């Protein structure tokens, strides 16, 4: 009898501890921002939302899709490249499906605005993200995104701008004028889990400065190169202006629950058929992500 009671009390204590720690982590995120980055850009208010300050209790679950290349690749000669690529044909089918289901694409600037103004998220929100900043985003993905009147976020490797196979500064300008959002992916695609603090800050500052010099906008979003992150990195980022950290952990993001520096994404692969794509959108698995070192291709 006493043993049972002790167990129950211990269990209750554990739950209380868990809640306490979850809350403590959230507080760290909102306080004590010391920025190694330069923040000159004015905060922009998205034009898509009216200024209605009603409180919200609508779901803040948002599938964040992860793409790399939008191109045709031969599966037999380059299986890795093939799985990192979605064909323009499949990409068009996927976006048509999203359109037919009344999905509304959001940028992280939109998310910021909705959270800060306590506004309802759209009924069917979705975020399209593209890692690395390949030039096929401009030639293949952008026309399809535009046709559907959608938005997207590109995580650009700073040092690759104007290099072969990557977006040029001129292309970034055109995309930026349309409303495509640009985020950080470090200057040289470093493994952020084994770099020194000073190197991480240098990589982020350079990446941020070059993007801001082209777009005129300051970016506080970061996709971890190769999806690599750990607790030490997250602790370092708490002390910067970086507000949203994108992983390659595969879950639907929930902005009301997930640590904003450890947001999961749903990877769309070369092998993702339209049926699998529909299943991805219904992936409601998991509420907790434990910070851990992870390794993934690109
Ligand atoms: Zn990458």
Automatic annotation (TrEMBL):
Keywords: Signal. It is found in: Secreted. One of its GO terms (molecular function) is hydrolase activity, acting on carbon-nitrogen (but not peptide) bonds. It comes from the Bacteria. Residues 1-24 form the signal peptide. The keyword Signal applies. One of its GO terms (cellular component) is extracellular region. One of its GO terms (biological process) is carbohydrate metabolic process. The keyword Transport does not apply. It holds the Pfam family Polysacc_deac_1. Residues 124-298 form the NodB homology domain. PANTHER family: POLY-BETA-1,6-N-ACETYL-D-GLUCOSAMINE N-DEACETYLASE, PTHR34216. This is Polysaccharide deacetylase. It comes from Candidatus Berkelbacteria bacterium CG_4_10_14_0_2_um_filter_35_9_33_12.
């Amino acid at each position: 009898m006493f043993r049972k009671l002790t167990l129950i009390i211990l269990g209750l204590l554990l739950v209380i501890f868990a809640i306490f720690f979850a809350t403590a982590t959230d507080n760290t995120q909102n306080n004590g921002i010391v920025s190694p980055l330069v923040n000159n850009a004015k905060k922009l208010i998205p034009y898509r939302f009216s200024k209605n300050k009603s409180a919200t209790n609508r779901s803040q679950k948002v599938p964040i899709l992860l793409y790399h290349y939008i191109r045709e690749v031969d599966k037999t000669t380059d299986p890795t490249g093939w799985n990192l690529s979605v064909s323009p044909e499949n990409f068009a089918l996927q976006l048509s499906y999203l359109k037919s289901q009344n999905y509304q694409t959001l940028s992280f600037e939109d998310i910021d605005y909705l959270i800060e103004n306590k506004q309802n998220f759209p009924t069917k929100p979705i975020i399209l993200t593209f890692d690395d900043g390949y030039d096929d985003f401009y030639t293949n993905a952008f026309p399809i995104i535009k046709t559907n009147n959608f938005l997207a976020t590109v995580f650009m490797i700073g040092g690759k701008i104007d290099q072969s196979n990557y977006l040029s500064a001129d292309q970034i300008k055109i995309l930026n004028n349309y409303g495509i959002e640009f985020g950080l992916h470090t200057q040289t695609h470093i493994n952020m889990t084994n770099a020194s603090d000073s190197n991480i800050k240098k990589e982020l500052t350079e990446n941020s400065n070059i993007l801001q010099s082209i777009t005129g906008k300051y970016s506080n979003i970061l996709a971890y190169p190769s999806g690599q992150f750990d607790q030490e990195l997250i602790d370092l980022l708490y002390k910067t202006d970086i507000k949203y950290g994108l992983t390659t952990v595969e879950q639907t993001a929930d902005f009301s629950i997930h640590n904003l520096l450890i947001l999961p994404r749903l990877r769309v692969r070369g092998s993702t058929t339209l049926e699998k794509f529909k299943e991805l959108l219904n992936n409601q698995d998991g509420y907790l992500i434990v910070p851990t070192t992870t390794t993934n291709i690109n």
